[in-house]
Amino acid sequence: MTLSKIYQQLGWNVKYEDEVKKFNNRILITVDNFHSKVYEGGDYEYIYPRLIKEFAFLLGESEYYGYSLGEKNYFELIRFFEGEEDTFLTNIKNLTLLLEAARKTLVVRYSKYYTFLLGEIKKVFEITPVDIGYLFTGETIIKKGATALDEKLIIENLTWLADYPNAKQLFENSLKHYLTKHYQDAITNAYSSLESLAKTYLSSDKRLDADEIRNNLVKNLGLEDDWKQLLHYYCKLAHEFSSRHGKKETGEKSDLPLELTEFYIYVTGTFIRLIIQKINSKSINT
């Protein structure tokens, strides 16, 4: 039984502010449990320095250790999370970065600790009885949009992209940059993710912004010609606004609205879904 149903059964009203505070507390408990798991697992002296260094690097934090009696001691993970009421968004971001640090340092040899962390975070999200505006995809945390679109174009895509690790990593990076409001980097990685998958699907090394590739992609997907125009503007937006190309004549980066970034990621997810479905249908028929 979910916490939401228990509240309903008891006739309790759910207060959003209280539940966000509880969610934040559960993040702190999860981080502490994860640290204890690593510490008690017998691999602490080898694993933890690598984990904390990677986590600190992603955070941009240079102070992650101290000295005691002349020995170097690494800080506990909980030090980088905060318990005040207004730190919810900071802790969501830091938890996402901890997931990325754990993935980089614990998979494959120490995957049991990474799996433990994924399981603990899943429980935090599942038990929360209110919509906190974020989703756990099973591997990372993303900002929530329209539920149906998130399920079809984000979560399912991440599962389907397991056989295409480069495209999957770029798509995950896009979602992480979106979460941390680095919108230009979000567009750059979204574009690169689709380009990587398109190259694999079409067995071509040419860039996605090449007319030949766009036309072949639309044709092979069995789409109407109008989709070529959409893909043309998709590529144009990437060049105009991405972190790699998006600069004004003054050399300053262009401002990028949140809504445009969300639209771009959903369009990316749409094309990824169409490609994967086409690949899957071919494999079934062969």
Structure explained in plain terms:
α3 packs across α4 and α7 runs antiparallel to α8. The protein has helices at 3-10, 16-40, 44-59, 88-106, 111-127, 147-160, 165-179, 183-202, 211-220, 226-241, 258-285, and strands at 65-68, 71-74, 134-136, 141-143. It has two domains: 1-132, no CATH class; 145-286, Four Helix Bundle (Hemerythrin (Met), subunit A). The chain starts with a helix and ends with a helix. The longest helix is centred in the last third of the chain and has 28 residues, at 258-285. Mean pLDDT is 83; it is low at 247-253. The protein has a two-stranded antiparallel ribbon with strand order 1-2. It is globular, with a radius of gyration of 21 Å. It is mainly alpha-helical. The protein has eleven helices and four strands.
Mean pLDDT over the full residue set: 83
Structural class: mainly alpha
Helix run count = 11
Number of domains: 2
The Rg value, from CA coordinates, equals 21 Å
Give me the side-by-side strand order of the main sheet.
Answer: 1-2
Low-confidence stretches: 247-253
